[in-house]
């Protein structure tokens, strides 16, 4: 398994983390994973992922960070 | 409080944009009125020019921008269903535009019939807007202080419109048909609900979400998020008692109530500045600086109010209310509105283009929608105009340069917003053309 790609968007202004995530998704290989760390829940991203054939798992870390793990389906 | 945004409910982009793109134009007209009428406008708050200017700004600039933002914000933040947003915008936008023109003309021309027409028009347009907004905000399953404060703000607009319509009827009807309420008390309560119960309440409710999210600051303390709107609402209710008890004894404690409300507003400004000083990223942008300018204006308003209370010979000057008005209207509210428009329009452009193009089509990023240089240039012109307006209160001979600077600032804002809308149209058309070519290529 390759190392997951990581975007720490916690100190970036919306929608910068989403812009970075979309740029990474364009080159994400099957089986590869993108991890996105955010302070808010990225609901607009979820609908974009669903429309474009990506799966995701989201969880809330104890420190309040939203961790979203994205893979190509 | 975990901030979440739901864009599935977002209304079509044309709904907020029609409000945003007309709002600055009326600010430009207000500046021209000041420039044309000159020093007499700033002799007192009761001059026809000052009244016309004020209503053009608070109704046609502020209210337009706030209605447009609220239609978007309530759907996105509260996940609320707005009933037929296209229809609501198509009715409310032109009708409140016309109503403000009637009202400003009524003040300038002192025509009774125009007050009556303006009252009727506002009741129709804002009655529809308030009904739709109240239903959406009451039915939403979303919780959080922002939602509660937005509900209070909508109540504030309802009271403001009701009192404003009563005032317009009072000015437009024969004496025997007028209300028994004192005209001054009506004006005092109308102004307090308009600026404090509606506009400031809306800014407070929105700031709980957007200041931490876009300016990367810590969140507002939870206890303060409850205390501020509750305290302001209580102060407004007590202040409104002057309608039923307009005697000298009541005036003493009413000035205490007003001071309490103003101190709460100052507390909010100081807290926001404190949060800004603790932001996690040191970079600043035009939105951040506009918010800082707005909060400094609100602090200056609070300190001026205290000085006017402490020094009656200063507070009794006919131009003292104009000083306060400039600090709070172009100072506080227009700074917040402009700063937010510079964030909202690029964000909506980006979002709607993404929704049309997915991850495949390249859309411009946020920074390409309106250049930071153009936003900062307009911001410094606005701050210059604000300084000139304050100077013109002290020296009314400066009315001409102050009015022209304010007009220029509003026109530059309009130019920047139109530029953002044109970027959206250009990239939307490219996405559609690319989609059309892809469909043709797929056909055998």
Structure description:
The complex is a heterodimer of chains A (73) and B (444). In chain A, 26% of the residues lie in helices and 33% in strands. Chain A contains 2 helices and 4 strands. Chain A has helices at 16-25, 43-51, and strands spanning 5-8, 33-38, 54-60, 66-72. The mean pLDDT of chain A is 85. Chain B is an all-alpha fold.
Query: What CATH first level of chain A would be assigned?
Result: Alpha Beta
- What is the overall shape of chain B? globular
Low-pLDDT segments, ≥5 res of chain B: 1-5
Number of strands of chain A: 4
Under CATH, the topology of chain B can be stated as: Cytochrome C Oxidase, Chain A
* Strand fraction of chain A: 25-35%
Q: How much helix is in the residues of chain A?
A: 25-40%
* CATH architecture call of chain A: 2-Layer Sandwich
What's the number of domains of chain A? 1
CATH topology of chain A: Translation Initiation Factor IF3
For the record, what is the CATH homologous superfamily label of chain B? Cytochrome c oxidase-like, subunit I domain
Distance between the termini of chain A: 16 Å
**SSE string of chain B:** HHHHHHHHHHHHH
* Number of domains as seen in the coordinates of chain B: 1
Q: What oligomeric state best describes the polypeptide chains here? A: heterodimer
Indicate the mean pLDDT of chain B: 90
Strand content of chain B: under 5%
Number of helices of chain A: 2
Q: Main attributes?
A:
heterodimer; A: 73 residues; alpha+beta; Translation Initiation Factor IF3; 4-stranded mixed sheet; 26% helix; globular; B: 444 residues; mainly alpha; 79% helix
């Amino acid at each position: 398994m390759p190392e997951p790609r990581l975007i720490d968007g916690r100190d970036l202004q919306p929608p910068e983390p989403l812009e970075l995530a979309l740029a990474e998704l364009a080159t994400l290989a099957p089986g590869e994973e993108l991890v996105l760390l955010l302070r808010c829940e990225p609901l607009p991203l979820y609908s974009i992922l669903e429309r474009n054939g990506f799966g995701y798992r989201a969880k809330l870390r104890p420190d309040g960070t939203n961790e979203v793990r994205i893979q190509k389906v | 409080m975990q901030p979440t945004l739901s864009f599935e409910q977002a209304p079509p982009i044309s709904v907020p944009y029609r409000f945003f793109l007309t709002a600055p134009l009326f600010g430009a007209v207000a500046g021209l009125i000041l420039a044309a009428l000159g020093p007499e406008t700033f002799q007192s708050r009761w001059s026809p020019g000052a009244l016309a200017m004020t209503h053009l700004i608070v109704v046609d600039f502020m209210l337009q921008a706030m209605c447009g933002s609220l239609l978007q914000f309530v759907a996105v933040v509260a996940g609320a269903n707005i009933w037929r947003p296209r229809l609501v915008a198509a009715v409310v936008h032109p009708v409140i535009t016309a109503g403000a023109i009637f009202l400003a003309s009524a003040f300038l021309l002192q025509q009774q019939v125009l007050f009556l027409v303006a009252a009727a028009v506002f009741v129709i347009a804002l009655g529809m807007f308030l009904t739709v907004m109240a239903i959406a905000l009451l039915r939403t399953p979303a919780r959080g202080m922002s939602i509660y404060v937005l509900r209070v703000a909508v109540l504030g607009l309802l009271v403001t419109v009701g009192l404003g319509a009563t005032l317009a009827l009072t000015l437009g009807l024969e004496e025997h048909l007028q209300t028994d309420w004192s005209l001054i008390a009506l004006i005092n309560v109308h102004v307090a609900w308009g600026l404090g119960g509606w506009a400031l309440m809306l800014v407070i409710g929105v700031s709980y979400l957007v200041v931490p999210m876009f300016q990367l600051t810590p969140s507002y303390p939870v206890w303060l998020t409850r205390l501020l709107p509750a305290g302001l609402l209580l102060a407004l209710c007590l202040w409104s008692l002057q309608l039923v008890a307009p005697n000298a004894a009541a005036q003493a404690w009413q000035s205490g109530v007003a001071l309490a409300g103003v101190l709460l507003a100052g507390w909010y400004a100081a807290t926001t500045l404190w949060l800004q000083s603790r932001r996690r990223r040191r970079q600043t942008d035009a939105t951040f600086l506009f918010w800082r300018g707005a909060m400094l204006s609100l602090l200056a308003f609070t300190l001026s109010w205290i000085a006017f209370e402490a020094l009656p010979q200063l507070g009794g000057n006919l131009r003292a209310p104009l000083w306060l008005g400039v600090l709070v209207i172009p100072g506080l509210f227009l700074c917040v509105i402009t700063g937010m428009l510079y964030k909202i329009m690029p964000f909506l452009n980006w979002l709607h283009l993404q929704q049309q193009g997915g991850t495949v089509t390249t859309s411009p990023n946020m920074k390409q929608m309106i250049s930071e240089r153009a936003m900062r240039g307009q911001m410094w012109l606005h701050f210059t105009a604000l300084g000139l307006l304050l100077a013109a209160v002290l020296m009314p001979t400066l009315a001409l340069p102050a009015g022209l600077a304010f007009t220029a600032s509003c026109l530059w804002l309009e130019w920047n917003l139109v530029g953002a809308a044109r970027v959206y149209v250009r990239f939307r058309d490219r996405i559609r053309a690319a989609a059309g070519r892809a469909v043709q290529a797929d056909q055998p």
